[in-house]
């Protein structure tokens, strides 16, 4: 029994409870300040997302709020709960770093590499700079768009016919289109609508059809077919003379119409004082844009061509028959428009009952001319006896903005990015002459309007992000040099992000910009951990050899930098891996929303990989160069305490 008790007695190599708590306290002080400020940096670097407005603001503000609240709580837990939990769970025998097999393997691989880097300094820096420079043409070769197109799992077909189309003809076209659409195997349901609803918010003319196409689940699609292929197939089937096809999605279409007044991806608004001139300018703009790669569904918003029934009353004839203008107007209103004659009550609701002539008696000019009028002197006479009835052309719908009449040339963008397509279109219009008469001007709207607004916002957000990160680093280290050493990882994080979105052929958008903003905070966080351990190595060097150029050699500096970089390799790699483990699954995710999430995640994944490589290899090199400079110039090292 006595031998069994001795078996579990603490050996001399075990540390006491006081030593254990002192070690935990010292380690927490060493790391917690840097980790706390790293968390603060991630929070502050994401705050500029709140400055986004419009559609992009509504989309990304919830993400920014969620991330900010989580990181605020995380920053508090780092300095409060984390040390307490460590004291509870880190008990028993503490093993040195080199006793861990994973750590030994990492050091065995990493140490020769870092020695090679510190030996071939110029080569290492040159490789990094070349890789950074290459990203510039890569980013310029990418297209640009406002937001990645969200797959709504349905299609909105919006064809436009001639403005004088009749009810009978529009019904026939609608039925033919629905039948052709339903013939495609991937189509599940079709719902078409012509005309407008009984609300002021729906200003659709009868010449514009809206057809919602609900698709079957992708598992039921033909092998190898995509949504773009389905749209192209439908477009080929629906080539009807006099009908201009338009393809979009239900939700984004409503958002575009509410925010910009344009129901397609891009619209060129034509402003002026006369509708006829606006119509001719719009036709010239359309002619210039025809054949531009990427431009699809190009058409001019109808300004003329509407048919109006006009009834000009002959007052001399009225006087002969003893009638007045009011008698004629009342008869016309009742016969054609309908006049309320009673009310019906259904529960708490009341509805007017209107009576008018049946459609067969008002569907032609000759029948309208024969509408009877009661004359006190001549009995029943025809409307044509006292009025001239005719059809006249006029605007089907008059649009205005800022007290100016407006027309529009509308088109969608497919098989190409939005930014380059519109830029080429702008160049074509600028190169053309005699398009705009004096007093008329063009304005680009639709998604391009949002793209320009988002780009302008991000141009002044980016410097704010870098300034905020730099100030946070300065408060963390109380040194401009150390802050710059951690901040220099940001441009090298850009390398991997640029390569990732280039390989996946993702267009530059607000979503990609948000991904880069989030990446900067993660990159700086890893850099802070490296700088903390390198400073810790310098403190150990000073304790061992003093702080003087006479006692410290370049070889000593090099060895201690290697020790600071290699001996604590595991926590640095853990910082990187935690970020990757949370982001990589999004790449393989499928379903609604993933096409917006991937452009955010791709620059973060690529950037984390290259920034971590830079931090593990180049940051120790730059740190060594600065320390050699300090030792050469000041005769001693400027070391910043790591046990704050």
Task: Tell me what the structure shows.
This protein has helices spanning 2-7, 17-46, 54-79, 81-89, 101-119, 121-141, 167-182, 227-237, 250-260, 275-289, 315-321, 325-337, 365-369, 418-431, 447-477, 480-487, 489-503, 510-545, 554-566, 569-588, 594-634; strands at 154-157, 187-194, 209-215, 247-248, 266-272, 295-300, 306-313, 339-346, 349-355, 372-375, 379-382, 387-394, 399-401, 404-413, 441-446. With 644 residues, it is α+β, with helices and mostly antiparallel strands. The strands form 5 sheets. Strands 5, 6, 13, 14 and 15 form a 5-stranded antiparallel beta sheet that branches. Strands 2-3-1-4 form a 4-stranded antiparallel beta sheet. It starts with a helix and ends in a 10-residue tail after the last helix.
CA-CA gap between termini:
48 Å
Task: Report Rg.
Answer: 37 Å
- Number of helical stretches of at least 4 residues: 21
Helical proportion, percent range:
55-70%
- How confident is the prediction overall: mean pLDDT? 81
Query: Which class of secondary structure composition applies to the elements?
Result: alpha+beta
Tell the overall outline. Answer: elongated
Largest sheet: 5 strands, antiparallel
Tell how many strands the DSSP assignment holds. Answer: 15
Query: What amount of the residues lies in strands?
Result: 5-15%
Low-confidence stretches: 1-12
């Amino acid at each position: 029994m006595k031998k069994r008790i001795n078996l579990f007695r603490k050996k001399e190599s075990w540390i006491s409870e006081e030593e254990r708590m002192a070690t935990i306290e010292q380690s927490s002080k060493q790391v917690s300040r840097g980790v706390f400020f790293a968390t603060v940096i991630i929070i502050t670097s994401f705050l500029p997302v709140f400055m986004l407005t419009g559609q992009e603001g509504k989309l990304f503000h919830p993400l920014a709020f969620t991330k900010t609240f989580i990181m605020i709580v995380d920053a508090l837990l780092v300095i409060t709960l984390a040390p307490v939990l460590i004291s509870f769970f880190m008990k028993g025998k503490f093993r040195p770093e080199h006793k861990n097999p994973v750590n030994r393997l990492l050091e065995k691989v990493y140490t020769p590499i870092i020695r090679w880097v510190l030996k071939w300094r110029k080569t290492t820096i040159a490789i990094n700079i070349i890789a950074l420079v290459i990203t510039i043409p890569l980013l310029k070769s990418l297209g640009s768009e406002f937001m990645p197109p969200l797959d709504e799992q349905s299609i909105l077909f919006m064809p436009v016919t001639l403005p004088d189309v009749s009810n009978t003809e529009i019904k026939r076209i609608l039925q033919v289109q629905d039948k052709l659409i339903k013939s495609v195997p991937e189509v599940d349901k079709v719902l078409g609508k012509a005309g407008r609803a009984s609300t002021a918010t729906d200003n659709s003319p009868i010449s514009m059809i809206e057809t919602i196409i609900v698709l079957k689940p992708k598992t039921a699609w033909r092998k190898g077919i995509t949504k773009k292929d389905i749209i192209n197939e439908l477009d080929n089937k629906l080539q009807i003379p006099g009908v201009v096809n338009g393809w979009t999605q239900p939700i984004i279409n409503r958002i575009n119409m509410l925010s910009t007044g344009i129901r397609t991806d891009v619209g060129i608004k034509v402003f002026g004082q006369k509708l006829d001139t606006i119509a001719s300018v719009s036709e010239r703009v359309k002619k210039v844009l025809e054949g531009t790669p990427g431009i699809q569904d190009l058409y001019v918003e109808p300004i003329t061509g509407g048919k109006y029934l006009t009834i000009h009353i002959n007052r001399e004839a009225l006087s002969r028959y003893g009638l007045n203008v009011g008698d004629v107007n009342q008869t016309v209103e009742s016969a054609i428009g309908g006049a309320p004659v009673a009310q019906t009550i259904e529960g708490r609701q009341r509805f007017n009952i209107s009576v008018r002539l049946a459609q067969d008696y008002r569907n032609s000019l000759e029948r309208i001319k024969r509408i009877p009028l009661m004359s006190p002197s001549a009995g029943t006479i025809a409307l044509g006896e006292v009025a001239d009835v005719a059809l006249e052309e006029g605007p089907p719908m008059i649009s205005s903005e800022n007290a100016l009449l407006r027309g529009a040339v509308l088109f969608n963008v497919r098989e190409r990015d939005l930014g380059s397509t519109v830029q080429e279109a702008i160049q074509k219009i600028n190169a053309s002459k005699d398009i705009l008469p004096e007093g008329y001007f063009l304005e680009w709207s639709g998604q391009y309007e949002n793209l320009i607004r988002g780009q302008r916002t991000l141009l002044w957000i980016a410097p704010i992000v870098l300034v905020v990160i730099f100030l946070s680093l300065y408060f963390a280290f109380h040194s401009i040099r150390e802050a710059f050493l951690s901040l220099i990882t940001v441009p090298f994080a850009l390398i991997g992000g640029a390569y990732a979105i280039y390989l996946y052929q993702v267009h530059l958008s607000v979503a990609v910009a948000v991904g880069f903003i989030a990446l900067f905070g993660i990159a700086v966080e890893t850099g802070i951990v490296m700088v903390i351990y390198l400073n810790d190595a310098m403190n150990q060097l000073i304790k061992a050899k003093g702080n003087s150029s006479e006692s410290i050699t370049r070889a000593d500096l090099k060895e201690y930098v290697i020790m600071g970089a290699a001996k604590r390799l595991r926590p640095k790699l853990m910082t990187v891996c935690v970020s990757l483990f949370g982001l990589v699954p999004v790449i393989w995710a499928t379903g609604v929303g993933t096409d917006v999430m991937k452009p955010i995640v791709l620059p973060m994944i690529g950037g984390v990989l290259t920034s971590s490589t830079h931090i593990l290899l180049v940051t120790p090199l730059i740190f060594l160069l600065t320390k050699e400079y300090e030792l050469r110039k000041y005769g001693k090292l400027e070391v910043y305490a790591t046990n704050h």
